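User: Here's a structure from my thesis project, written as structure tokens. My advisor, Dr. K., wants to see whether a designed sequence matches the one we expressed. Can you design one independently, without my sequence as a hint?
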């Protein structure tokens, strides 16, 4: 791709500087970090890559032992943002002055300015993408001392201004009380909403699913985005700008897919499940069931097997706009309706680490990164394929569905599959309950890190909702009254709850 090449075509024998890169503790995602590492190394920087799930102590000890010039932190899941803040605080405590670069899909310039920069007096810079890593690193360590100081001071000033503007916006924003938000919940006419009982209750596993069967379900647009090529597939292939390079990348991807299939470099496992359920305010109660040889699947709704905990929007809206919570799409206990909820965990990343290691041993970083990107696409394709099977066969609430590829990619079907840790259910802790319900580690081989990232990284999990009016939404910011209520519901102290929900708090933590 265009940016994986030397800026200085002539080459320079002297290294431009030494940079440490690491995905922070609890996180397993590193495609973006790896691309940054390749770009920087192609531009004469020496890279020390500590890989994924790197503890803070290892990052800082290596930085000191190796006398690096820059530390770069990466992460995808939202708990990684908190871990980056902890690293910055420890760097300040140790009185370090190394520039700290922040990158990853969930990071942003505003979050870096508001949460990380105030913790560290040294230079803190959010790097939007790999193409920006070289000029940022060059400004910090390849020029004169005066140039580096000027760049750092300019960035500090910009971040101070961003914090001030952010504070002013927060003061203007209006959040309603949790009671009012609940009174404004999304209401269904439960007497008329169709509810279909799934074809089975409990779990169904899929082991060593054929990778080749998932190719028609791949959404290629995020693949190009991972390589920092903006544009939608397939039109990006004909774009007069990135089209030529996009087509080359696409051709390389298809060749590697052939290799993945012929050499069985990736394996795909999954588990899905369906359970009796009803909502109770913002929570969802999941009930016991058993398989009777006489009566089939029988349910016991007298006592909950477990509770799924959800959050509700608290932003002030127009009078006709509801404040959504995922529990709104499950029939309440007092509705007289017996409802159900589904769950899934899939991976297409089994075997990826071994294949990547072999590519790296062969000094083929391009193929290593390509394989990780394709594993992610296959995992998402597997989730899309299974959701289709759920709608048409296993839950069969829309058995006659017949959508074209473009409609599938646009999610033009009935029902949703929101994932813990994402906008509609932003608490990653619910992933542990999902894994417990599905016995996912045993059924798929996927494990959870201490920050509740899934390993292998090319994995997807979530809930199935069949309500015909269910939709995706974002919780956005929430007020202290909901955080306190939520902490009580999940049996956790307020400080820990605030840490897990840090990115959506509508107030400053004490």
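Assistant: Designed independently from the structure alone:
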């Amino acid at each position: 791709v265009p940016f994986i090449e030397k800026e200085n075509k002539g080459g320079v024998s002297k290294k431009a500087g030494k940079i440490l890169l690491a995905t922070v503790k609890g996180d397993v995602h590193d495609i973006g970090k790896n691309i940054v590492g390749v770009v920087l190394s192609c531009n004469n920087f020496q890279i020390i890559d500590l890989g994924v799930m790197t503890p803070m102590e290892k990052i800082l000890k290596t930085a000191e032992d190796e006398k690096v010039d820059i530390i770069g932190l990466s992460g995808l899941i939202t708990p990684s943002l908190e871990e980056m803040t902890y690293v910055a605080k420890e760097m300040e405590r140790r009185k370090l002055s190394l520039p700290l670069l922040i990158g990853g899909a969930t990071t942003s310039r505003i979050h870096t300015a508001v949460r990380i920069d105030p913790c560290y007096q040294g230079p803190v810079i959010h790097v939007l993408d790999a193409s920006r890593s070289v000029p940022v690193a060059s400004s910090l360590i390849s020029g004169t001392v005066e140039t580096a100081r000027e760049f750092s001071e300019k960035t500090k000033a910009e971040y101070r201004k961003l914090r001030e503007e952010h504070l002013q916006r927060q003061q203007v924003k209006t959040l309603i009380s949790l009671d009012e938000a609940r009174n404004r919940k999304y209401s269904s006419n439960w007497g008329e909403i169709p509810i279909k009982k799934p074809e089975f209750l409990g779990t169904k596993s899929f082991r060593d699913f054929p990778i080749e069967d998932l190719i028609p379900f791949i959404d290629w647009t995020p693949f190009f985005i991972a390589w920092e090529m903006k544009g939608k597939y397939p039109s990006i292939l004909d774009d007069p700008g990135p089209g030529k390079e996009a087509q080359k990348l696409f051709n390389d991807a298809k060749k590697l897919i052939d290799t993945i299939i012929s050499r069985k470099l990736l394996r795909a496992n999954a588990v899905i499940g369906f359970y009796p359920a009803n909502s109770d305010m913002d929570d969802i109660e999941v009930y016991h069931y058993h398989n009777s040889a006489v009566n089939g699947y029988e349910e016991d709704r007298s006592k909950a097997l477990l509770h799924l905990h959800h959050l509700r929007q608290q932003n002030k809206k127009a009078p006709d706009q509801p404040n959504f919570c995922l529990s709104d799409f499950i029939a309440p206990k007092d509705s007289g309706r017996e409802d159900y909820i589904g769950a899934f965990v899939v991976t297409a990343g089994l075997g990826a680490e071994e294949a990547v290691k072999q590519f790296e041993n062969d000094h083929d970083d391009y193929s290593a990164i390509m394989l990780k990107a394709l594993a992610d696409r296959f995992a998402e394709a597997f989730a899309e394929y299974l959701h289709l099977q759920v709608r048409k066969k296993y839950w069969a609430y829309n058995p006659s569905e017949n959508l074209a590829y473009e409609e599938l990619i646009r999610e033009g079907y009935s029902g949703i599959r929101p994932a813990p840790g994402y906008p509609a259910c932003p608490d990653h802790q619910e992933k542990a309950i999902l894994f417990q319900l599905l016995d996912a580690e045993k059924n798929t081989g996927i494990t959870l890190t201490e920050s509740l990232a899934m390993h292998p990284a090319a994995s997807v999990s979530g809930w199935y909702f069949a309500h015909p009016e269910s939709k995706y939404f974002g919780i956005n910011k929430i007020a202290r009254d909901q955080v306190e209520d939520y902490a009580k519901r999940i049996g956790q102290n307020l400080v820990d709850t605030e840490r897990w929900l840090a990115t959506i708090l509508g107030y400053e933590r004490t």
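When you compare it with your expressed construct, this may help: The radius of gyration is 24 Å.
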